[in-house]
Amino acid sequence: MTTVLISGASVAGPALAWFLRRDGHRVTVVERAPELRDAGYAVDFRGAALDVLAEMEILDEVRSHRTRMAGTTLLAEDGSVTGELPASAFGGDLEVPKRALTRILHRVTDAEFLFGDTITALVQHDGRVTASFEHAPTRDFDLVVGADGVRSAVRRIAFPGVDPLEHLGMSGAGFTTDNHFGLDRRGLLQPGAGRAIFALCAGDPARMTVSLSFATSSAELDRRDRAVQEAAVRAAFADHPWPATRRLLSEMTAADDFYFASACQVHLDSWSTGRVVLLGDAGYCAAPTSGMGTSQALIGASTLARCLAEADGDHTAAFDRYEKEMRPYVTANQTLGREAVSSFGG
C-alpha cells in the first residue's frame, strides 16, 4: 500500500485523495487553514470535469447546489446599461458555491486530514520522502503531492530558487455585502479602462459578492497587509464616476471576508521532482480569469490517479505520463486566462 501526503484541502487535493483511496492507497491531507475554508466565489465546471464528478458519484449532489444564474448585465462607468452576457459566460456547464463543493469533497474523501498545519521541509530518499510539519511529528511517505494553490509551499520547498509566477497585470479585492443592487441570481459587470467592478448574487438573496479589479504591474500587493491592499483599491477607484462605487468601497472596509489576489499563472518546465509532484494551481495555474481552475483541478486529479494506477508502482513513469497528457489542456487554458485579462479591463 502506497502512502501519499497531499498538501491542500480545497478541490484538487481532496479529489485526488478520493481516487487514491479508491485504488487502495493510504492518504494524508494537510491543510494550513484551521478548518474547511468558506471563502471563495462560485466555481464552475466545464466539459470533462462533469465526467470526473460522475465517476466520484457526486454529480447529482453537486448539481443540487447549482446557482441557476440568469446572466450578467453590462454597465457603463456612469451606471447605464450597455449590454447583457449569458449565464454561460461565467458559469460554464454547471456552477455551484465553492463552499458547497469543498464540503461535499471533504465528506466523501476517506482520508486522514491534518488541519491547521503545513509542510516545512521535505527530504527525498531512494524509497521515501521524509516530511516535516509545523506542528505534527515528522513522518515518511512514499509520495508527496503539492495541491496547495498558486503560492504552493510544496513547490517552494521542492523547487528551490524557481520563480514560476507570471503576473498578468491585474489584481483585485473580493468581499460580500448586503444585496442593495437587488440582484436575483444575476450579475453586474462594469468594465473600464484598467479597472472593473463585478457584483453577483448566486445564492442568499440578501447578500451579494463584489469584486473590484484594477491594473497592477506586479503581484507585490498579495504579500502586503489588508490596510495596504485596501488603500491600493481605493486609489484605483478614487475617481470612478459611478455613485455606487463609494458605497462599495466603504463596504469593503467593513467586510469580514475581505480577500485580495492577483491574476497569476504558474509556468514550470516540469511538474515533478523525484517523489514529489504538483497538482492544479500549484503546478499550472491558468489564472481565475480562465474560468477553468476547478475543472483543471478535477481533471488533473483524475489523470494523476489513473496514471499512478496504470504505472504499477513506477511513480516516475506515472508523473511523466500525467504531465504529457495534461500539458496541452493546461496550455490552452492558460491562453484563455491571458486573453480574458487583456479584455476584462476595457
Question: Summed up, what is this model?
Answer:
The protein has 346 residues and is α/β, with parallel strands linked by helices.
- The count of strands amounts to 18
Look up the CATH topology of the domain at 3-39 and 97-164 and 266-344: FAD/NAD(P)-binding domain
So how many helices? 11
Q: What structural class do you assign from the helix and strand content?
A: alpha/beta
Mean pLDDT: 93
State the fourth-level CATH superfamily of the domain at 3-39 and 97-164 and 266-344: FAD/NAD(P)-binding domain
Helicity range of the residues?
A: 25-40%
What is the helix/strand order? Answer: EHEEHHEEHEHEEEEEHEEEEHHEEEHHH
Indicate the CATH architecture of the domain at 3-39 and 97-164 and 266-344.
3-Layer(bba) Sandwich
Strand arrangement across the biggest beta sheet: 5-4-13-14-15-12-16
Global morphology: globular
Task: Report the uncertain regions.
Answer: none
Beta percentage is: 25-35%
Query: What separation lies between the terminal Cα atoms?
Result: 53 Å
Largest sheet: 7 strands, mixed
CATH class of the domain at 3-39 and 97-164 and 266-344: Alpha Beta
Radius of gyration: 20 Å
Pfam family, one: FAD_binding_3
GO molecular function: FAD binding
Protein name: 2-polyprenyl-6-methoxyphenol hydroxylase-like FAD-dependent oxidoreductase
Domain FAD-binding: 2-332
Describe this protein's structure:
This protein is α/β, with parallel strands linked by helices and 346 residues long. The protein has a domain at 3-39 and 97-164 and 266-344: FAD/NAD(P)-binding domain, CATH 3.50.50.60. The chain is built from eleven helices and 18 strands. It has helices at 12-22, 49-55, 59-63, 88-91, 98-108, 153-158, 226-237, 244-254, 281-284, 293-311, 315-344; strands spanning 3-7, 26-31, 42-45, 71-75, 81-85, 94-97, 112-115, 119-124, 129-133, 139-141, 143-146, 165-178, 186-192, 195-200, 207-215, 259-266, 272-273, 276-278. The strands form four sheets. Strands 5-4-13-14-15-12-16 form a seven-stranded mixed sheet, with helices on both faces. It has a six-stranded mixed sheet with strand order 7-2-1-11-18-17. A three-stranded antiparallel sheet has the order 8-9-10. It starts with a strand and ends with a helix.
